[in-house]
Amino acid sequence: MQQNDDIVSLWLAAKRMTALLEHHAETELRSRLGLSLSTYALLSTLQAANATVNQQEVARFLGLAKSSVSRQIEAAAAAGLVVVTPSALSRRENTVVLTEAGARLATEADDIVCAIGPGAAAAEIAAASVALQRVLDTMGAPEQTASPTA
Fold this sequence. Notes:
- Helix content is about 65%, strand content about 10%.
- The protein has six helices and three strands, in the order H-H-E-H-H-E-E-H-H.
- Strand 2 and strand 3 form a beta hairpin.
- The radius of gyration is 17 Å and the shape is globular.
């Protein structure tokens, strides 16, 4: 029974931490950069990919419907943050890449988000991140937990 209690505790702690970080990140990003958390998530995902990815990969990584991601990508393209082009591999797919402006904004936003950490030591944050990733890997985490690839 202890393992079940530990899993429930982990789930609840992860939900609380996610809600807290998302609240602070949304507040800071909007006030300092005029950037929504969903746009930041898109830019951050593309920056982490460090390559051109298709919209389906972005949707899978973010855990969102492709239609939701398509709207986010359209808005980011209109703002000059990403470039969308037809895929060379399939006429039914579009690829997405950050522009220089999008990459700069993602980096600036990363700095803001990293500064709102819970006040824990860097080593504690790194250890918690590694431990959580191990749990996700052990549980057979859905594809969206892995970095998107080209």
